[in-house]
Batch of 2 targets.
Target 1
Amino acid sequence: MSVFFVAGGLVAAGAFAAVWRRDLTAAIAGIPLMFAGAGVALVGVGRFAAAGGPHLFGQAFAVLLAVAAVALIALGLGVAGRESSR
Amino acid sequence: MDSLHAIGFYVSSGVSLAGALGVALLPRRDQRGVGMGIVALGLAGLYVSLSAAFAALLALACYLGAAWLLATPQYRSLESVTGTAWRQVGAAGAAGLLALLAYAAFRGDFVHAVYFGGELGATALSRVVFAHDALATEAIAALMLVAVAGATAAWRVRERSR
């Protein structure tokens, strides 16, 4: 149950950062936080509750979420552009 | 979960939540990058305490990369057009989301099962990722490729128009 509390806290903190920040390049920092919360929940379910099978689907999707998070950060900051190019 | 894993889990939980609050609240981008690095360390600790050490290594690398991207001073700021009232509504919505998720966590519980995955699980995880979930892995790889190519293209267009 503690796993879900931590996951919920990370998701809520990411959602807060995404909606509260006025700077869009700071707001996209909330996306990896939400993905991290989802990953913690997935790994926790895979660790404690997966019945049958190799119990690794949660870990696999947590890894994919981490890669997707860094890809989205790179895309968002790349679209924003460099400071000197303005 | 034995006592050593439980201690690691709760310490890592505090570290990751503190880093997440830093990302959400700190004003400067280098501070937010440090906060994301702290989230990376806490998240890796959480995964290790949940017997997912290989996933912890990969997540640590990914989130440290995200922290480096966030901390670099080369990106310019883009001001949002959203008004303060809507941002406050969004913040209240985030608080409501936290309350909803906490209620779901309080009411929910796991169907207990025996775990056979081992502490590291690299080989079994590789079988899942590259065999059973190969399509999802390809989709993430395509997303990564599009993200890097799109970022590079946007960068070059701005450099040429300067």
Target 2
Amino acid sequence: MLNLNGIGKRFGGLTALEGISFNVGKGSITGIIGPNGAGKTTLFNVATGIYPPSEGAVKLEGKDISTLPPEGRARLGLVRTFQNIELFGKMTVLENVMVGLHTQSSSGIFSSAFRMPWQMSEERRIREKAKEWLAFVGIPELEDVEAGTLSFGKGRLLEIARAMALEPKLLLMDEPAAGLNSSETAELADLIKKIRDLGVTVALVEHDMDLVMDICDQLVVLNLGTMLAEGTPREIQDNQAVITAYLGEE
Amino acid sequence: MKSDKLKFLVFCLVVLIAPLPLAGGYLTSVLIFVGINGILALGLNLLLGYAGQISLGQAAFFGLGAYGSGVLTTMYAVNPWLAMIIVAICVAIFAFAIGFPVLRLKGHYLAMATLGVGVIANIAFNETIALTGGPSGLSGIPNLSIGGFNFDTDLKNYYLVWSFALVMVLLSLNLVNSRFGRGLRAIHDSEVAARVMGVNARLMKVQVFTLSAFISAIAGSLYCHVMTFISPTTFSFHVSVELLTMIVIGGLGSVYGSILGALLLTMLPEILRTFHDFDIIFYGLLLVSMTIYLPGGLVRGIPALFRRLMPTRGANA
């Protein structure tokens, strides 16, 4: 599904990533873990087109998307959520999800201003779709609430609903469990599995090891901008290099 | 949805009967300018209030509209309605072209760049004397007319300008509650998230900039035909700032707020006239107190104020 080949990213003289290569298998849940400052979020930003890689290539289903901006990648079915939640705070919850349906609708300035019949029916269609996604993540009752007033946990669910509205092939989640309590994290784990069962490939950056070990099929470990290990959760748990990176040497 | 339609109908009704008690007096002509400023403020509000992109160069598009119509109708005897359409489209194309480089900038830099556009346009109005008449202005612009009906009195012009304003209010209301409007508001709240959702932020910003220029040009054409005389001072930097003040006071991101702001700021100088040059102090006080006490503008502030006052009044009674 997603193929990273020799990714490097430098900010001036600082090398944030170097020689990162791995595959995210179709239909899998891949976890990207590593200590703070390992380059996980930078890798995400490169994968989603927030900034281009200094070297190497990002491929989605075999297609090179290294230089494509985020909106172009969204159209190809690659979408992400953010570590600190990036909602459209002054819009309602339902409207947030409706923005997620942007790529699946086409009305422009003229048809909207003049309320053409096809624009009206498209509007009804995406409104219904948006409601379905709110129900999917379990917050249908919040549709008229201003998104900026949501709690962190509900905001995260909304972000997932909004991302899922794009009907992505690949969903990248940046620390989805950050700021959630343990019961919310357990619900999140179920939700992520439900998303995988819809046929969406998931890759996530995460610090919560219980969550990662529970839901991930494959793990990639980063340390200081390089790849430390790759394998199943069980293999990673027994990997000496990983243990050293996390706990330090004796 | 139903209350939105009702609100618009009430608004239409108010506009319809407002000039009747004035019997075509001086205040009618003031209300014409409220309408023109309202259209201009609405254009700016779509750009700044909804998409979050500032422009201090609205006077340029306003002026290009006015001078375009003025020159075409006086020197080339083009039909005024046709001229209005041609000019608005040309101004829109111009805005679209400069929009791509200008809207790459953000915040203060965008303000500076659009300010530059406004200043350059004003210099052009002053210096291209052969076309515009320069500082002494362009006169003899015909009134608009339909068939044999000539818009030659204040009352007729009032209804002319306000029918344009009402149509623009309606179209804007439709627009902001659509896929396009949601895209703009999304860009305002979080551009990076909007782009990740597949919103082509760069194109949309240019589109709304173009739309706002188009609307300003129409206001310019109306202005020149209502006044029959135009000069560069009307399209100076001062106007751009006044428009900004209007939408801040009326309500950023509110269609009706644009009109309310235009009403207040157009009427205020009439009221403050007795204070001569000290009126600038009132503007300052108004802006400062608005941003401190009613940051959402009057359209949001007044209902909120009522909600706060009502229960206490009930308790006292």
